[in-house]
Amino acid sequence: MHPPDRTEKRSRMWLVWHVGIRNQRLKANLEMRNECAGL
Q: N or C, which terminus of the chain has less Cβ within 10 Å?
């Protein structure tokens, strides 16, 4: 078993990474929508 603080740090890093990718995807979708709308 890993020490709890180590696992917590890893899960937090994964969470930040996961959220960052989601935000990038959302931003890309918004930009594509704006281009399609001709803004």
A: N
User: Which structure tokens are listed for 25?
Assistant: 């995807």
Half-sphere exposure of 31 (CA within 13 A, CB side): 6
Phi, psi torsion values for 18, nearest 5 degrees: -60, -45
pTM recorded for the entire structure? 0.57
Report the distance separating Cα 22 and Cα 28, nearest Å.
10
> 1 in helix, strand or coil?
coil
pLDDT band at 18 (very low <50, low <70, confident <90, very high): very high
The SS3 assignment for 19 reads helix
